[in-house]
Design a protein that fits this description.
Elements (H helix, E strand, L loop, with lengths): L1 H10 L10 H15 L11 H4 L1 E8 L2 H4 L8 E10 L4 E9 L6 E11 L4 E13 H4 L4 H10 L9 E4 L6 E9 L3 E6 L4 E6 L1
Antiparallel strand pairs: 1-2, 1-9, 2-3, 3-4, 4-5, 5-6, 5-7, 7-8, 8-9
Length: 197
Amino acid sequence: MLGKAELLDAIAPLNRGVSATASDRLAINAAATRLEDLNPTPDPLTARSRLEGDWLLLYTTSQELLNIDRLPLASLGRIFQCIRLDETRIYNLAEVAGPPGLAGLVAVAARLEPVSTRRVQVGFERGVVGLQWLLGYANPAQFIETLQRTPRLSLLKGIDFTINAQRQAGWLEITYLDDDLRISRGNQGNLFILRKA
């Protein structure tokens, strides 16, 4: 599909959006809009096998995520969004590269509530920040299992905190979904382009 190849080529050199200029963002948004018009899955929340799983972030306009790259002695690594429909949960995991032994992880867990066949209400409930080796982080699926079976991690492992879901809520609309690419737009106007991991 030409629109998909065009979009992937446009975002490839932009380091998930970290190095995107204002004109890059306009061009990416235009390419994403053209692809959204060709969405093969008009009701993505009913396409469980396509939607469920771990997604690698390729591009975003979310400054909240991109600002992680501006931490001293650290750089933004891979970012995953992991969808668990049976649990009505979503997990965002950002790997942070640093000096040897200081690679970090920022993880957020949220509850999903479908409000249409394309949109979910998202209520953030839990955050975890720490060094990957102390957290025992190997990959997203393994770490999510750790979060699911451990209500609160020890302070010796990392910082595990509760988020007020009423204050930290928003929505996410899935505007394009195929077997390996997803485009979503959020309530703050952010664009997210992800590839199935």
